[in-house]
Amino acid sequence: MGVLVLAGILLLVVVGCVCVVWAARGGPRWVRVVSAVTLGVAGIVTALVRGMGSSRSGSGSSSDD
Prior knowledge:
mainly alpha
């Protein structure tokens, strides 16, 4: 069951990436909508991942130079 869920998520990611590329080349309206949703979700995930990384204290690595 878990494999099917992960395969479904992977399929959604691949379809979203294809729509982003297709929309950049001037695809139909529904492709541009799917592309916008995909990029929005990617921005949210990126912000969450960065937030999780910055909440760790004492990780020993610092990017401030």
